[in-house]
Amino acid sequence: GPQYLNAYSPSSFDGIWDNAYANIMKNVNAMIPVAIQKQQYMHVAIAKILKAYTMITLVDMFGDVPYTEGLQGLANLNPKADPGKQVYDSALALLDSAISDIHKTSLSMPLNDLYYNGDTSKWRALAKTLKLKAYVQVRQVNSTVYGGTITAKINALLAENDLINDPS
After folding, report:
1. Tens of pLDDT, residues 87-131
2. How far apart are CA 105 and CA 153, in angstroms?
3. Which of 14, 49, 44 is nearest to 123 (CA)?
4. DSSP characters for 86-113?
5. How far is CA 126 from CA 66, 76, 99, in A?
6. Are 99 and 128 in contact (CB under 8 A)?
């Protein structure tokens, strides 16, 4: 029917929640240390970008979500939810770290980059565009985020002119 309660139920979101925590973030957290050890920094950057995107999306959909206590398995079966701002700040720091990793020399590049075919400039543009999205999302709720004013951070990203601007 035309009512929200008829269209969505709590189980509608189970797949999103499960995919984010049991698949994406769990796999990324396991893969990053291995890739760092093998000096596969582009792999690390891509993983961080995907994790940050997942974190931002979870906050946008659900509000406060588990992050600092999440993914501990049997050690913590009931992790507390972190404030959305804290998760956003962590995601922004992760995107900055990913951009830094893109500039490092990798011993190998991903073989099956289904998104950008190994084009580091496109991955960097994605990371910066996700930062812009995060800033725009929180600008009316909070004037500062991750160590500065949102307006200044938005203007800096726009001035760099290194964002996704062509859907092809």
Report:
1. 999 999 999 999 999 999 888 888 888 899 889 999 999 999 999
2. 27
3. 49
4. HHHHHHHHHHHHHHHHHTSPPSS--S--
5. 25, 33, 10
6. yes
User: Which three-class secondary structure state does DSSP give residue 34?
Assistant: helix
Phi and psi torsions of 52, nearest 5°: -60, -45
* Backbone region of residue 34 per phi and psi (left: phi > 0; alpha: psi in -120 to 50; beta: other values): alpha
**43-77, pLDDT tens digit by residue?**
999 999 999 999 999 999 999 999 999 888 889 88
32 and 44 in contact (C-beta within 8 Å)? Answer: yes
pLDDT over 70 (residue 168) = no
Give exposure, 131-158, as e/b (b: 16+ Cβ within 10 Å): beebbebbeeeeeebbeeebeebeeebe
CB 124 within 8 A of CB 162: yes
Q: What percentage of the chain has pLDDT greater than the value 70? A: 86
Q: Is the pLDDT of residue 146 over 70?
A: no
